Amino acid sequence: MRYLSAGESHGPGLTVVIDGFPSNLPVSKEYIDEQLRRRQMGYGRGFRQRIETDTVEVTSGIRFGRTLGTPITMNVVNRDFKNWTDRMAVFGEKPEDLKEIYRPRPGHADLAGAIKYDHEDIRNVLERASARNTATIVAAGALAKQLLEQFGIEVTAHVVELCDVVAKDLPDSLDELRARADASEVRCADAGAEAEMIRRIDEAKENGDTVGGIFEVIVRGCPIGLGSYAMPDRKLDGRLAGALMSIQAIKGVEIGLGFEAARRFGSKVHDPIAYANGSYLRATNGAGGLEGGVTNGEDVVVRVAMKPISTLYKPLPSVNMKTKETELAAIERSDYCALPAASVVGENVVAWVIADALIEKLGGDSLEQMQDNYEKYRERVAKR
Ligand SMILES: Cc1cc2nc3c(=O)[nH]c(=O)nc-3n(C[C@H](O)[C@H](O)[C@H](O)COP(=O)(O)O)c2cc1C
Ligand SMILES: C=C(O[C@@H]1CC(C(=O)O)=C[C@@H](OP(=O)(O)O)[C@H]1O)C(=O)O
Q1: Would you list the DSSP string of 282-298?
Q2: Nearest ligand, CA of residue 342?
Q3: Under DSSP, is residue 372 helix (H, G, I), strand (E, B) or coil?
Q4: What is the rounded CA–CA span in Å between residue 134 and residue 257?
Q5: Portion of the chain with pLDDT greater than 90, in percent
Q6: How far is Cα 352 from Cα 355, in angstroms, rounded to an integer?
Q7: In terms of Cα–Cα distance, which of 226, 229, 259 is closest to 350?
Q8: Which domain range does residue 160 map to?
Q9: Euclidean distance between CA atoms 57 and 190, whole angstroms
Q10: Where does FMN bind (predicted)?
């Protein structure tokens, strides 16, 4: 399964085309739109989210609410485009009084992108580098989630650290964790930490600054055997890390104990194997559900680090690329903290990667064939 996406942040809209999605899956537009709504939420977002109400228009690959097995095209309109028609017109002459951007923002794609693609106006870079595009992978992930649901696989993301504030009081139950994260303005399941996190975002906003943090994604219900150790590019840990790192502003991915494993003796890292009631069990999950790049039947647990937003309302020094003079970086309307939104993006990205691995394992032409193959595979696994 693969997808391509397109669209500028303030252009007419975004498009995603998905190829290789199985046929006959009942899918709901409301579910996709709900994922898009969740992505727009979160304390610390900028004014843009008050303009947009993201929903999909599906123009191919679905008929009477079921996937056809053919390319699925989904479009999301940029409502803000109507305010940008002078600056973002697709055709026509460039206005003489167009305000161009020459002062790259440290941390954004501005400098490297302008040099790489020979652009004078940095807007030509930032429009596509923008995380506005994450709406497309969320729409794709929303389809993936509906597929995973058929196989009892669920994916949940929640914020575990924001700047220097760490969530500590987390429930054991995944349902409770999800309910609390969904009810939280920062998608954090620890109410005490949430209040402190909100204070950090306020502090950043007051100081013209920004904050990032860490979110965790948990996948429950994966069968043993998704991914493979046989070739490096088939390893599911690498595929998850690659997909998550490709989200804007993501700078680190840990699986299971992650970096902490490097600090411990092996006996305190690896998960002893037991067998009871017809299945293999682990009392611990330091591996985060992945050994050799293959799911081992435990929860897949991934932690993802997001850097603070690059655009600072109190900007850092930069260089005017026209004059080469030292000047402060440009200011674009911006979020102060987009960690809660990024966690929703991460949840949908992980759903996409897991669904892709499931299709690979079970054969992805139709839902029925996948279900038959799943039943047979489960029977085999139960005999081992
Ligand atoms: C949901 C989300 C919202 C974001 N909002 C902004 C923003 O408002 N302003 C900004 O400068 N960067 C924002 N970013 C981050 C930039 O898009 C990102 O830093 C930039 O494209 C450079 O890519 P890199 O950080 O991956 O190197 C956001 C990222 C995410 C995931
Ligand atoms: C538009 C979205 O995020 C944008 C991501 C973004 C960036 O530089 O990445 C910059 C901001 O764009 P604008 O200047 O239009 O407010 C964010 O709002 C979105 O997530 O829907």
Answers
A1: ES--TTTTEETTEE-SS
A2: 1
A3: helix
A4: 27
A5: 99
A6: 5
A7: 226
A8: 2-382
A9: 36
A10: 128-130, 248-249, 292, 307-311, 333
Residue 364 is predicted with a pLDDT of: 84
Phi/psi zone of residue 51: left (φ > 0), alpha (ψ -120 to 50 degrees), beta? alpha
Contact 295/289 with Cβ under 8 angstroms?
A: yes
Q: Are 312 and 209 in contact (CB under 8 A)?
A: yes
Distance 306 CA to ligand 1 centre (A): 9
pLDDT, tens only, 341-356: 999 999 999 999 999 9
How close is the Cα of 29 to the center of ligand 1, in Å?
27
- Give the tokens for residue 159: 């914020």
- Distance of CA 154 to CAs 178, 262, 265, 332, 348, Å? 11, 29, 32, 37, 11
Residue ID of nearest Cα to ligand 2 atom 17: 334
Question: What is the tens place of the pLDDT at every residue in 94-148?
Answer: 999 999 999 999 999 999 999 999 999 999 999 999 999 999 999 999 999 999 9
Whether ipTM > 0.95 holds is yes
CA 299 to CA 306: how far, in whole Å?
Answer: 22
Q: Provide the token pair at 140.
A: 């794709």
Closest C-alpha residue for ligand 1 atom 13: 309
384 labelled binding-site residue: no
Report d(CA 200, CA 291) in Å as an integer: 37
Q: How many residues does the chain have?
A: 384
Beta-carbon neighbour count of residue 106 at 10 Å? 14
* Spatial CB neighbours of 306, under 8 Å, sequence gap ≥ 6: 212, 213, 214, 215, 249, 250, 251, 338, 339, 342
Q: Give residue 135's identity as a one-letter amino acid code.
A: A
106 lines ligand 1 (CB under 6 A): no
Identity of residue 287: A
Closest C-alpha residue for ligand 2 atom 8: 130
CATH code at position 42? 3.60.150.10
Query: Binding residue per annotation — 292?
Result: yes
Separation between Cα atoms, residue 384 and residue 381, nearest integer Å: 5
Find out whether 25 and 144 touch, Cβ atoms under 8 Å: no
Q: How far is CA 201 from the centre of its chain?
A: 21
39 marked as binding residue: yes
Residue with tokens 């998960």: 271
Kindly give the distance from the C-alpha atom of residue 169 to the centroid of ligand 2, in angstroms, as a whole number: 32
Please state, in angstroms and rounded to a whole number, the distance separating the CA atoms of residues 237 and 228.
Answer: 10
Q: Which two tokens stand for residue 229?
A: 């150790």
